[in-house]
Amino acid sequence: MINPPALALRRRAEELHASATRELQHDQDTAALLLFYATECGLKSIYMIQNNLKDTSDERGSAISARSFFHNILLLADALKIPKAIYAPYPNFELQRTKFKIDATQLHQAWRYGERVVDTRLGSGPIK
């Protein structure tokens, strides 16, 4: 298993953000997936730096490994003490094809497998 250091995650977050920016004009869902992973890498990098962790498998004191968050960016935001006012209430989404309800922690899976996602706060339109 690969356990990158914080600076490698930060660099990857920047690369994914740049890729998402280029992809946005071609496919919004692909761009959204890239932005999700950019966010995940960036938040994990910050978490690791704040907790002096050498790589994603490292644990120290009360800090769990960055890997243990998996793809849950909401848990990462909580661990980083990002004020909930910035991102709460947690948005809910709907898969356009099946109308199945998901939350933000499942978005990357929907986009990864080609599902169209509808932001329930915006009505029935796809996420833009």
Distance between the termini: 34 Å
Overall pLDDT: 90
- Structural class based on helices, strands and sheet pairing: mainly alpha
Q: Find the count of extended strands (DSSP E, 2+ residues).
A: 3
Helix tally equals 4
- Residue share in β-strands: 5-15%
Helix content: 40-55%
Strand numbers in spatial order across the main sheet: 2-1-3
Model regions low in confidence, pLDDT < 50 over at least 5 residues: 123-128
Output the helix-strand order. HHHEEHE
Tertiary shape: globular
Largest sheet: 3 strands, antiparallel
Rg estimate, integer Å: 15 Å
Task: Describe the 3D structure.
With 128 residues, the chain is mainly alpha-helical. The protein has helices at 6-23, 28-50, 73-79, 107-112; strands at 92-95, 101-103, 117-119. The protein is built from four helices and three strands, in the order αααββαβ. The longest helix is centred in the first third of the chain and has 23 residues, at 28-50. It starts with 5 loop residues before the first helix and ends in a 9-residue tail after the last strand. Residues 123-128 have low confidence and may be disordered.
